[in-house]
Design a protein that fits this description.
This protein is 22% helix and 40% strand. By secondary structure, the protein is of the alpha+beta class.
Length: 300
């Protein structure tokens, strides 16, 4: 798709994503099932004033810093394995822009890649915008100082689009369950379907009504997880934590999918404890994780 020069004042901003995915293939032929799980993703916005428009197309400057241990490309064409995709999206009059390209990554660094389909991606510096508590509050995450320490409250229904999608799936699944009952299917089938539906209902209830409150104090970290006010509280000694990092806990499907992050603490015994999940914005998740590390004296 060709990207034309926007009119002044249009406020065009391109969204560019670099995503590392794991392609998993099960079955073959008509029963072939392909799933692409997001392992890592970085996203940045490119305003129109940074795009170089030429008679043959548009040059979009992007810069992504990969980790030294970034996963290398192992998948070829449509085979199983790890692969990287560069995705460009923008809302335009008429048909929206959506282009994606495979990007080979070897030796922990992104190989130079020139795209011939009217877009040229070159390397340029791009600084991330600073995260503020107001930004977090707008996303349903509230940070405040209390007598017990710094409190991080993850409110309910913070991801309505994901919750709506899952709720719609639950309704379809419920219809399938009632159909099995109506046609007197062998008891094993509605039993398994019903058990899976219970799991889906719990997840849906958590998306709509679930809250998490993490309080980082001088010596302990208290984490209360609840659904509609009912839940449990876990207390972890600060000295027992050896790492706080990010983990992709859920995602929408495909290479254009959206990952949702969980802040995960690892104890000296190797156990994982959630300190907040369902965070749509990676910059928010990174900021929160760094604040928690600093509060208990952990290195990045």
């Amino acid at each position: 798709m060709r990207l034309d020069r926007p009119s002044p004042g249009d406020g065009l901003v391109l969204t560019v994503k670099l995503t590392c995915l794991q392609r998993i293939i099960r079955g073959s032929g008509k029963h072939r099932n392909v799933r692409e799980n997001i392992l890592w993703q970085e996203e940045q916005g490119v305003p129109a004033e940074r795009i170089l428009f030429t008679p043959t197309g548009a040059a979009i400057p992007v810069h992504f810093a990969l980790l030294a241990d970034a996963r290398e490309t192992t998948a070829s064409k449509r085979s199983e394995g790890v692969f990287w995709a560069l995705i460009v999206e923008a809302s335009l009059p008429g048909v929206d822009l959506h282009e994606d390209f495979d990007v080979p990554v070897h030796g922990g660094a992104m190989s130079e890649r020139h795209v011939q389909n009217d877009e040229l991606y070159t390397v340029a510096q791009s600084a991330k915008a600073a995260v503020t508590r107001q930004d977090l509050a707008a996303a349903g995450i509230h940070v405040q100082q209390t007598e017990a320490g710094v409190e991080y409250h993850f409110g309910a229904a913070r991801n309505p689009s994901f919750a709506i999608g899952l709720t719609a799936f639950v309704l379809i699944w419920t219809g399938a369950l009632w159909l099995q009952i109506a046609i007197d299917a062998p008891v094993l089938f509605p039993l398994l379907t019903g058990l899976f539906e219970l799991l889906l209902l719990v997840i849906a209830a958590d998306l709509w009504l679930g809250t998490t409150t993490v309080t980082v104090g001088p010596h302990t970290v208290r984490c209360r997880q609840a659904i509609a006010g009912l839940g449990t509280t876990r207390v972890i000694a600060s000295t027992d934590m050896v790492k706080i990092d990010l983990h992709i806990s859920m995602q929408t499907t495909g290479r254009s999918g959206t990952p949702y992050y969980e802040i995960r603490a690892t104890t000296g015994a190797g156990r994982h404890r959630s300190l907040g999940s369902g965070i749509r914005n990676k910059a928010h998740a990174e900021w929160l994780a760094q604040e928690m590390r600093s509060a208990i004296g952990l290195r990045s």
